[in-house]
Amino acid sequence: MTPGKSSANVPSPRSDEVSDGLVVDSIASQLRQILARRIATGMLKPGERLDRAAIAREFGVSSAPVRDALQRLEVDQIIETRPRSGTYVATPTIADIHEVCQYRKGIEWVATGLAARVMPRSLLDELRTEVVEALAAADQGDFEPFFASDARLHGEIVAASGNQRLIRARAAVEPYVYWLRILGATGRHRVAGSTRRHLEILDAMITGDIEAAKRAAEVHLDEVEAWTVEDMRASMSAGDPDVVPSPSVDG
């Protein structure tokens, strides 16, 4: 399938920048962000073919930045090139979940300990309010505030660590983290469980209990991994074509 036209809430490269000869790398970066967002939100489905020519036409760019953007997404492992077939949105496996969650836990456990020493009380209070409000919205069937709160909380903690290598490492896996956040662990009880852990992390940071904050972060990410695997297994049992088993894990 070819990507649809840009919707109002999906950013796109500015036409004046493109026509003025904005460097290919900058255009490719914008395209990568747009396509990653479409994949993460389900606008582009697992297994869907990506038409390079159609993408170039949609955004009014040459083939070079499209090629570069797709190469970066392949490094992110959210698309794949099949020999003599084309480029497709990747289909996540159980092994992907394990690897991403383990990678993420290593980063965020360290980041939580560093951030707990420096995050201002005002920011912690603001994040706590968002977490509580997001749960209330989920009770009404609106999960978007939870996704936003979840992403912001983890992002603020990593940013506050001040460790640029941790920040870059976390950014590198963010498209996949967001994708898995949408694909799995979105049930009401999952949101409640994540909210409980988010509050434990924040409350420990507010009281200055660094070790408790790190423990809560570790438990939280272990639970997210378990919940997402469980949801993926349920999808596979129901015959959902958007997920596939991993022979190395499930065989």
From TrEMBL:
Keywords of the record: DNA-binding, Transcription, Transcription regulation
GO molecular function, one term: DNA-binding transcription factor activity
UniProt-listed Pfam families: FCD, GntR
Domain of life: Bacteria
UniProt entry tagged with the keyword Protease: no
Occurrences of domain HTH gntR-type (ranges): 25-92
Classification via InterPro entries: GntR_C, TF_FadR/GntR_C, Tscrpt_reg_HTH_GntR, WH-like_DNA-bd_sf, WH_DNA-bd_sf
Name of the protein this chain belongs to: DNA-binding transcriptional regulator, GntR family
